[in-house]
Amino acid sequence: MSLPDPCKQKISGFQRSCILLFRGRQSRRNRYAGILPVVLLFALCLCGCRRQDPSAQISDVGFYFDTVVELRLNGTSDQKLIDRCFEKMGQYEALLSRTREGSDVWKINHSAGKPVEVSDDTAALIALAQKYYELSDGAFDITVAPYVTIWDFPNNTGQIPAEASIAAARIHVGLPLLHLDGNTVTLDDPRASVDLGGIAKGYIADRLKEFLEEEGVTSGYINLGGNMLTIGSKPGDIPWNIGIRRPFGEASDTIATVKVDGLSVVTSGPYERYFEKDGKIYHHILDPASGYPVWNGLASVTILSESSADGDALSTACFVLGLERGMELIESLDDIEALFVTEDGELCYSSGFPEE
Protein backbone atom coordinates (compact mmCIF):
# COMPACT_ATOMS: atom_id res chain seq x y z
CA MET A 1 0.00 0.00 0.00
CA SER A 2 1.41 3.37 -0.96
CA LEU A 3 1.07 6.04 1.64
CA PRO A 4 0.52 9.76 1.10
CA ASP A 5 3.14 12.16 2.28
CA PRO A 6 1.92 12.63 5.86
CA CYS A 7 3.73 15.86 6.58
CA LYS A 8 1.71 18.44 4.62
CA GLN A 9 -37.49 17.22 16.80
CA LYS A 10 -39.69 14.02 15.99
CA ILE A 11 -43.04 12.63 17.12
CA SER A 12 -42.52 9.69 19.43
CA GLY A 13 -44.18 6.31 19.01
CA PHE A 14 -46.32 6.93 22.09
CA GLN A 15 -47.42 10.34 20.82
CA ARG A 16 -48.33 8.81 17.45
CA SER A 17 -50.37 6.09 19.21
CA CYS A 18 -52.28 8.74 21.17
CA ILE A 19 -53.10 10.67 17.98
CA LEU A 20 -54.30 7.54 16.18
CA LEU A 21 -56.42 6.57 19.17
CA PHE A 22 -58.04 10.01 19.21
CA ARG A 23 -58.68 9.97 15.47
CA GLY A 24 -60.11 6.46 15.58
CA ARG A 25 -62.66 7.33 18.21
CA GLN A 26 -63.41 10.89 17.11
CA SER A 27 -66.48 9.84 15.10
CA ARG A 28 -67.98 7.81 17.96
CA ARG A 29 -70.40 10.09 19.86
CA ASN A 30 -70.26 8.24 23.14
CA ARG A 31 -69.75 9.16 26.74
CA TYR A 32 -65.94 9.13 26.30
CA ALA A 33 -65.82 11.76 23.56
CA GLY A 34 -65.12 14.61 25.96
CA ILE A 35 -62.52 12.68 27.89
CA LEU A 36 -60.28 11.67 25.03
CA PRO A 37 -58.91 15.13 24.20
CA VAL A 38 -57.99 15.58 27.84
CA VAL A 39 -56.26 12.20 27.89
CA LEU A 40 -54.44 13.07 24.70
CA LEU A 41 -53.28 16.44 26.02
CA PHE A 42 -52.06 14.82 29.24
CA ALA A 43 -50.21 12.12 27.31
CA LEU A 44 -48.55 14.63 25.03
CA CYS A 45 -47.45 16.69 28.01
CA LEU A 46 -45.90 13.61 29.52
CA CYS A 47 -44.14 12.80 26.29
CA GLY A 48 -42.74 16.31 26.07
CA CYS A 49 -41.55 16.57 29.63
CA ARG A 50 -37.98 15.74 28.54
CA ARG A 51 -37.97 18.37 25.81
CA GLN A 52 -34.72 20.24 25.91
CA ASP A 53 -34.22 23.92 26.56
CA PRO A 54 -31.77 25.06 23.86
CA SER A 55 -30.49 27.89 26.04
CA ALA A 56 -29.72 25.72 29.07
CA GLN A 57 -26.20 24.63 29.86
CA ILE A 58 -24.51 22.94 32.80
CA SER A 59 -20.95 21.90 33.52
CA ASP A 60 -18.92 20.56 36.40
CA VAL A 61 -15.47 19.22 37.23
CA GLY A 62 -14.27 16.35 39.38
CA PHE A 63 -11.17 14.34 40.11
CA TYR A 64 -11.04 10.74 39.00
CA PHE A 65 -8.39 8.48 37.50
CA ASP A 66 -5.70 10.70 39.07
CA THR A 67 -6.71 13.59 36.84
CA VAL A 68 -9.18 16.47 36.57
CA VAL A 69 -12.28 15.56 34.56
CA GLU A 70 -14.87 17.93 33.10
CA LEU A 71 -18.40 17.50 31.75
CA ARG A 72 -20.46 20.05 29.84
CA LEU A 73 -24.04 19.44 28.72
CA ASN A 74 -26.05 21.78 26.49
CA GLY A 75 -29.85 21.89 26.26
CA THR A 76 -30.45 20.73 29.84
CA SER A 77 -30.21 22.06 33.38
CA ASP A 78 -30.56 18.66 35.04
CA GLN A 79 -27.57 18.47 37.39
CA LYS A 80 -28.54 14.90 38.23
CA LEU A 81 -27.18 13.82 34.85
CA ILE A 82 -23.70 15.04 35.71
CA ASP A 83 -24.00 13.62 39.22
CA ARG A 84 -24.82 10.23 37.72
CA CYS A 85 -21.80 10.48 35.46
CA PHE A 86 -19.53 11.22 38.41
CA GLU A 87 -21.08 8.28 40.25
CA LYS A 88 -20.35 6.04 37.28
CA MET A 89 -16.77 7.27 37.12
CA GLY A 90 -16.30 6.30 40.75
CA GLN A 91 -17.70 2.86 40.04
CA TYR A 92 -15.41 2.35 37.05
CA GLU A 93 -12.42 3.55 39.02
CA ALA A 94 -13.19 1.04 41.76
CA LEU A 95 -13.47 -1.66 39.09
CA LEU A 96 -10.51 -0.95 36.83
CA SER A 97 -7.83 0.65 39.02
CA ARG A 98 -4.61 -1.34 39.22
CA THR A 99 -3.78 -0.01 42.68
CA ARG A 100 -7.19 -0.16 44.39
CA GLU A 101 -7.51 -3.31 46.47
CA GLY A 102 -10.51 -5.39 45.48
CA SER A 103 -10.84 -4.03 41.94
CA ASP A 104 -11.08 -6.49 39.06
CA VAL A 105 -7.60 -5.55 37.92
CA TRP A 106 -6.19 -5.91 41.44
CA LYS A 107 -7.74 -9.39 41.66
CA ILE A 108 -6.20 -10.40 38.34
CA ASN A 109 -2.77 -9.15 39.39
CA HIS A 110 -2.96 -10.96 42.73
CA SER A 111 -4.42 -14.20 41.37
CA ALA A 112 -1.10 -16.11 41.50
CA GLY A 113 -2.00 -17.62 38.12
CA LYS A 114 -5.49 -18.75 39.13
CA PRO A 115 -8.62 -17.92 37.06
CA VAL A 116 -10.49 -14.76 38.09
CA GLU A 117 -14.12 -13.91 37.31
CA VAL A 118 -14.49 -10.28 36.25
CA SER A 119 -17.34 -7.94 35.35
CA ASP A 120 -18.75 -7.56 31.85
CA ASP A 121 -17.04 -4.17 31.53
CA THR A 122 -13.65 -5.50 32.52
CA ALA A 123 -13.98 -8.45 30.15
CA ALA A 124 -15.04 -6.17 27.28
CA LEU A 125 -12.13 -3.85 27.94
CA ILE A 126 -9.59 -6.67 28.02
CA ALA A 127 -11.02 -8.08 24.78
CA LEU A 128 -10.58 -4.67 23.16
CA ALA A 129 -7.02 -4.50 24.46
CA GLN A 130 -6.31 -7.89 22.89
CA LYS A 131 -7.63 -6.59 19.57
CA TYR A 132 -5.25 -3.65 19.60
CA TYR A 133 -2.33 -5.80 20.69
CA GLU A 134 -2.78 -7.87 17.54
CA LEU A 135 -3.48 -4.87 15.34
CA SER A 136 -0.33 -3.07 16.48
CA ASP A 137 1.98 -6.09 16.47
CA GLY A 138 2.34 -5.83 20.24
CA ALA A 139 2.96 -2.07 20.45
CA PHE A 140 -0.14 -1.76 22.64
CA ASP A 141 0.19 -4.18 25.54
CA ILE A 142 -1.70 -4.02 28.85
CA THR A 143 0.77 -6.43 30.50
CA VAL A 144 3.40 -3.69 30.80
CA ALA A 145 2.43 -3.30 34.48
CA PRO A 146 5.75 -4.75 35.75
CA TYR A 147 7.57 -1.96 33.92
CA VAL A 148 5.06 0.64 35.18
CA THR A 149 5.73 -0.48 38.73
CA ILE A 150 9.50 -0.22 38.34
CA TRP A 151 9.48 3.23 36.77
CA ASP A 152 6.71 4.59 39.07
CA PHE A 153 6.46 7.86 37.13
CA PRO A 154 3.81 9.46 39.40
CA ASN A 155 6.40 9.47 42.20
CA ASN A 156 9.72 9.23 40.38
CA THR A 157 11.77 12.40 40.71
CA GLY A 158 14.65 11.23 38.57
CA GLN A 159 15.71 7.68 39.36
CA ILE A 160 16.46 5.46 36.36
CA PRO A 161 15.76 1.81 37.25
CA ALA A 162 18.62 -0.62 37.14
CA GLU A 163 18.96 -2.38 33.80
CA ALA A 164 18.89 -5.74 35.60
CA SER A 165 15.49 -4.88 37.13
CA ILE A 166 14.01 -4.04 33.75
CA ALA A 167 15.49 -7.18 32.20
CA ALA A 168 14.03 -9.29 35.01
CA ALA A 169 10.60 -7.74 34.44
CA ARG A 170 10.76 -8.26 30.70
CA ILE A 171 10.15 -12.01 30.86
CA HIS A 172 6.85 -11.35 32.64
CA VAL A 173 5.51 -9.01 29.93
CA GLY A 174 3.51 -10.09 26.88
CA LEU A 175 -0.23 -10.29 26.27
CA PRO A 176 -0.11 -13.97 25.23
CA LEU A 177 0.44 -14.60 28.96
CA LEU A 178 -3.19 -13.52 29.52
CA HIS A 179 -6.22 -15.61 28.56
CA LEU A 180 -9.83 -14.39 28.41
CA ASP A 181 -12.65 -16.94 28.29
CA GLY A 182 -16.00 -15.20 28.64
CA ASN A 183 -15.64 -13.35 31.94
CA THR A 184 -12.77 -15.49 33.18
CA VAL A 185 -9.27 -14.06 33.10
CA THR A 186 -6.17 -16.17 33.67
CA LEU A 187 -2.54 -15.09 33.79
CA ASP A 188 -0.23 -17.99 32.98
CA ASP A 189 2.65 -16.28 34.75
CA PRO A 190 2.00 -15.57 38.46
CA ARG A 191 4.40 -12.64 38.23
CA ALA A 192 2.68 -11.07 35.23
CA SER A 193 0.24 -8.21 35.79
CA VAL A 194 -1.97 -5.86 33.79
CA ASP A 195 -2.52 -2.12 33.65
CA LEU A 196 -5.57 -0.80 31.78
CA GLY A 197 -4.51 2.84 32.05
CA GLY A 198 -3.82 3.08 28.32
CA ILE A 199 -7.41 2.36 27.32
CA ALA A 200 -9.72 2.61 30.37
CA LYS A 201 -10.48 6.33 30.18
CA GLY A 202 -11.53 6.03 26.57
CA TYR A 203 -13.78 3.09 27.34
CA ILE A 204 -15.36 4.94 30.28
CA ALA A 205 -15.94 8.05 28.16
CA ASP A 206 -17.77 5.91 25.60
CA ARG A 207 -20.01 4.43 28.29
CA LEU A 208 -20.79 7.89 29.72
CA LYS A 209 -21.71 9.17 26.28
CA GLU A 210 -24.05 6.22 25.76
CA PHE A 211 -25.76 6.97 29.07
CA LEU A 212 -26.17 10.67 28.33
CA GLU A 213 -27.54 10.07 24.84
CA GLU A 214 -30.04 7.58 26.26
CA GLU A 215 -31.14 10.38 28.61
CA GLY A 216 -31.74 12.70 25.65
CA VAL A 217 -28.55 14.76 25.71
CA THR A 218 -27.66 15.84 22.17
CA SER A 219 -24.87 18.34 22.76
CA GLY A 220 -21.90 18.47 25.11
CA TYR A 221 -18.55 16.96 25.83
CA ILE A 222 -16.77 14.61 28.21
CA ASN A 223 -13.17 15.47 29.02
CA LEU A 224 -11.38 12.79 30.99
CA GLY A 225 -7.97 14.29 31.51
CA GLY A 226 -7.25 14.96 27.86
CA ASN A 227 -9.53 12.28 26.43
CA MET A 228 -12.08 14.57 24.77
CA LEU A 229 -15.31 12.97 23.55
CA THR A 230 -17.93 15.24 22.01
CA ILE A 231 -21.69 14.68 21.93
CA GLY A 232 -23.17 16.06 18.74
CA SER A 233 -22.24 19.61 17.88
CA LYS A 234 -22.40 22.91 19.75
CA PRO A 235 -25.77 24.74 19.86
CA GLY A 236 -26.58 26.05 16.41
CA ASP A 237 -25.03 23.01 14.72
CA ILE A 238 -21.56 24.50 15.14
CA PRO A 239 -18.71 21.98 15.28
CA TRP A 240 -16.57 21.78 18.39
CA ASN A 241 -13.19 23.42 17.93
CA ILE A 242 -10.72 21.26 19.86
CA GLY A 243 -7.21 22.48 20.53
CA ILE A 244 -4.34 20.02 20.37
CA ARG A 245 -1.75 20.79 23.01
CA ARG A 246 1.75 21.78 22.08
CA PRO A 247 4.08 19.10 23.50
CA PHE A 248 5.76 20.31 26.69
CA GLY A 249 3.92 23.64 26.39
CA GLU A 250 1.38 25.10 28.80
CA ALA A 251 -2.01 23.38 28.94
CA SER A 252 -3.55 26.29 27.04
CA ASP A 253 -0.79 26.36 24.40
CA THR A 254 -2.07 24.64 21.27
CA ILE A 255 -0.11 23.54 18.23
CA ALA A 256 -3.20 22.80 16.10
CA THR A 257 -6.98 22.77 16.25
CA VAL A 258 -9.55 20.42 14.78
CA LYS A 259 -13.29 20.83 14.22
CA VAL A 260 -15.32 17.77 15.21
CA ASP A 261 -18.96 16.78 15.60
CA GLY A 262 -19.60 13.80 17.86
CA LEU A 263 -16.06 12.49 17.61
CA SER A 264 -13.34 11.62 20.09
CA VAL A 265 -10.01 13.44 20.19
CA VAL A 266 -7.29 11.68 22.21
CA THR A 267 -3.65 12.70 22.45
CA SER A 268 -0.72 10.75 23.88
CA GLY A 269 2.61 12.38 24.54
CA PRO A 270 5.65 12.14 26.80
CA TYR A 271 4.91 15.51 28.42
CA GLU A 272 2.11 14.00 30.53
CA ARG A 273 4.46 12.31 33.03
CA TYR A 274 8.22 12.52 32.77
CA PHE A 275 11.49 13.59 34.33
CA GLU A 276 14.68 14.84 32.78
CA LYS A 277 18.13 13.57 33.64
CA ASP A 278 21.43 14.38 31.99
CA GLY A 279 19.59 16.17 29.21
CA LYS A 280 17.37 13.18 28.37
CA ILE A 281 13.60 12.90 28.81
CA TYR A 282 12.35 9.77 30.57
CA HIS A 283 8.59 9.47 30.15
CA HIS A 284 5.67 7.18 30.92
CA ILE A 285 5.04 5.75 27.43
CA LEU A 286 7.01 2.52 27.67
CA ASP A 287 8.04 0.20 24.89
CA PRO A 288 6.66 -3.28 25.72
CA ALA A 289 9.62 -4.86 23.97
CA SER A 290 12.34 -3.08 25.93
CA GLY A 291 10.79 -1.73 29.13
CA TYR A 292 12.26 1.70 28.46
CA PRO A 293 10.54 4.92 27.40
CA VAL A 294 9.94 5.23 23.67
CA TRP A 295 12.49 7.46 21.92
CA ASN A 296 11.66 7.64 18.23
CA GLY A 297 11.46 11.31 17.36
CA LEU A 298 7.77 11.75 18.14
CA ALA A 299 6.44 14.37 20.56
CA SER A 300 2.73 13.43 20.45
CA VAL A 301 0.08 11.48 18.57
CA THR A 302 -3.55 12.62 18.33
CA ILE A 303 -6.29 10.26 17.16
CA LEU A 304 -9.73 11.20 15.80
CA SER A 305 -12.30 8.42 16.03
CA GLU A 306 -15.92 7.70 16.90
CA SER A 307 -14.94 5.53 19.85
CA SER A 308 -12.76 7.10 22.52
CA ALA A 309 -11.49 3.66 23.55
CA ASP A 310 -10.20 3.17 20.00
CA GLY A 311 -8.53 6.56 20.15
CA ASP A 312 -6.99 5.83 23.54
CA ALA A 313 -5.42 2.57 22.44
CA LEU A 314 -4.32 3.83 19.04
CA SER A 315 -2.69 7.00 20.33
CA THR A 316 -0.42 4.89 22.53
CA ALA A 317 0.16 2.20 19.91
CA CYS A 318 1.08 4.71 17.23
CA PHE A 319 3.43 6.57 19.52
CA VAL A 320 5.25 3.31 20.21
CA LEU A 321 5.30 2.36 16.53
CA GLY A 322 6.70 5.69 15.40
CA LEU A 323 5.75 7.95 12.52
CA GLU A 324 6.16 5.60 9.55
CA ARG A 325 4.66 2.42 11.00
CA GLY A 326 2.07 4.37 12.99
CA MET A 327 0.88 6.24 9.91
CA GLU A 328 0.73 2.99 7.98
CA LEU A 329 -1.54 1.53 10.66
CA ILE A 330 -3.84 4.57 10.65
CA GLU A 331 -4.14 4.56 6.86
CA SER A 332 -5.19 0.90 7.00
CA LEU A 333 -8.16 1.67 9.28
CA ASP A 334 -11.56 3.07 8.31
CA ASP A 335 -12.87 6.24 9.96
CA ILE A 336 -9.69 6.81 11.98
CA GLU A 337 -7.42 9.82 11.46
CA ALA A 338 -4.27 10.97 13.18
CA LEU A 339 -1.91 13.87 13.68
CA PHE A 340 1.69 13.02 14.50
CA VAL A 341 3.86 15.79 15.94
CA THR A 342 7.60 15.25 15.76
CA GLU A 343 10.21 16.48 18.19
CA ASP A 344 11.22 19.00 15.54
CA GLY A 345 7.70 20.47 15.55
CA GLU A 346 6.53 19.01 12.23
CA LEU A 347 2.82 18.29 11.96
CA CYS A 348 2.17 15.08 10.02
CA TYR A 349 -1.47 14.41 9.11
CA SER A 350 -3.16 11.26 7.91
CA SER A 351 -4.81 11.53 4.50
CA GLY A 352 -8.38 12.11 5.78
CA PHE A 353 -7.60 14.40 8.69
CA PRO A 354 -10.06 17.33 8.58
CA GLU A 355 -8.62 20.67 7.57
CA GLU A 356 -8.59 23.49 10.11
Per-chain topology:
Blueprint: H1 13-25, H2 36-47, E1 57-64, E2 67-74, H3 79-96, H4 104-109, E3 116-117, H5 120-135, H6 145-151, H7 163-170, E4 178-181, E5 184-187, H8 200-214, E6 219-224, E7 227-231, E8 240-245, E9 254-260, E10 264-268, E11 274-277, E12 280-283, E13 298-305, H9 308-321, H10 323-331, E14 337-342, E15 347-349
Antiparallel strand pairs: 1-2, 2-6, 3-5, 4-5, 6-7, 7-10, 8-9, 10-13, 11-12, 13-14, 14-15
What does this structure look like?
- This protein has helices at 13-25, 36-47, 79-96, 104-109, 120-135, 145-151, 163-170, 200-214, 308-321, 323-331; strands spanning 57-64, 67-74, 116-117, 178-181, 184-187, 219-224, 227-231, 240-245, 254-260, 264-268, 274-277, 280-283, 298-305, 337-342, 347-349.
- The chain is of the alpha+beta class.
- The chain folds into two domains: 13-47; 57-349, ApbE-like domains (T-fold, Roll), CATH 3.10.520.10.
- The strands form four sheets. Strands 1-2-6-7-10-13-14-15 form an eight-stranded antiparallel β-sheet. Strands 3-5-4 form a three-stranded antiparallel β-sheet. A two-stranded antiparallel ribbon has the order 8-9.
- The longest helix has 18 residues, at 79-96.
- It starts with 12 loop residues before the first helix and ends in a 7-residue tail after the last strand.
Summarize this entry quickly.
By secondary structure, the chain is an alpha+beta fold.
Mean pLDDT: 88
What's the number of helices? Answer: 10
What would you say the CATH architecture of the largest domain is?
Roll
CA radius of gyration = 24 Å
Question: How many distinct folded domains?
Answer: 2
**Total beta strand runs:** 15
Question: How much helix, percentage-wise, in residues?
Answer: 25-40%
